[in-house]
Design a protein that fits this description.
The complex is a heterodimer of chains A (113) and B (112). Chain A has 113 residues and is an all-beta fold. Chain A has strands at residues 4-7, 10-13, 19-25, 31-37, 43-49, 54-56, 64-70, 73-78, 87-94, 103-104, 108-112. In chain A, the strands form two sheets. In chain A, strands 2, 4, 5, 6, 9, 10 and 11 form a seven-stranded mixed beta sheet that branches. Chain B has no helices and nine strands. A five-stranded mixed beta sheet of chain B has the order 1-9-8-3-4, with no helix packed on it.
């Protein structure tokens, strides 16, 4: 029973398209995150979200938007995809930000062509 | 923001102890030091976290000197399955707002 699950695992799409990546956690955590890992393996936080606030990394383009229908889900919507958006996107959750209980999903490899 | 510097890669043999050092010269007073492990095609996995001195769990030990400007992750008696990328991260406990870029990490390769 996967604790943090993301779908799809692979996503190939054309420039200019709009796509979404879904994330669900069954750990009962209050906070969820989206990270981007580029080709150089830099793993950078994009968003963190709990039921009280959304914290956005200021370097993230506004084409990226997180949507949380409920506490267990944090989906990532990307509009007008660009070649530079190609990366692996990881969802994670924790009860306390940065704590030992932070659990990552297995990632979604996005390729924009 | 506290930036971390780690060796890009390290090689070891099964059964040896591996020590990976991370520099974080401008660590803030309320920052903790956290290490993650990442296997190919998987998300990072928490290994250990500490604030000062020494922390030990069933997987690793973390040594932090008094000035906290560096830390050393110690993996006792590594095995082939410990081959992975190890990331050092400094930050505080909030809603994640001050979570930092992980950096390139250290690729540890364990051989027979």
């Amino acid at each position: 029973d996967t604790a943090v699950s993301q779908t799809p695992k692979y996503l190939v799409t054309q420039m200019g398209n709009d796509k979404s990546i879904k994330c669900e956690q069954n750990l009962g955590h209050d906070t969820m995150y989206w990270y981007k890992q580029d080709s150089k393996k830099f793993l950078k936080i994009m968003f963190s979200y709990n039921n009280k606030e959304l914290i956005i990394n200021e370097t993230v383009p506004n084409r990226f938007s997180p949507k949380s229908p409920d506490k267990a889900h944090l989906n990532l919507h990307i509009n007008s995809l660009e070649l530079g958006d190609s990366a692996v996107y990881f969802c994670a959750s924790s009860q306390r930000g940065g704590g030992p209980d932070e659990t990552f999903g297995s990632g979604t490899r996005l390729t924009v062509v | 923001l506290a930036k971390t510097t780690q060796p890009i890669s390290m090689d070891s043999y099964e059964g040896q102890e591996v020590n990976i050092t991370c520099s974080h010269n401008n660590i803030a007073t309320n920052d903790y030091i956290t290490w993650y492990q990442q296997f190919p095609s998987q998300g990072p996995r928490f290994i250990i976290q500490g604030y000062k001195t020494k922390v030990t769990n069933e997987v690793a030990s973390l040594f932090i000197p008094a000035d906290r400007k560096s830390s050393t992750l110690s993996l006792p008696r590594v095995s082939l399955s410990d081959t992975a990328v190890y990331y050092c991260l400094v930050g505080g406990f909030t809603g994640g707002g001050n979570k930092l870029t992980f950096g390139t990490g250290t690729q540890l390769k364990v051989e027979l």
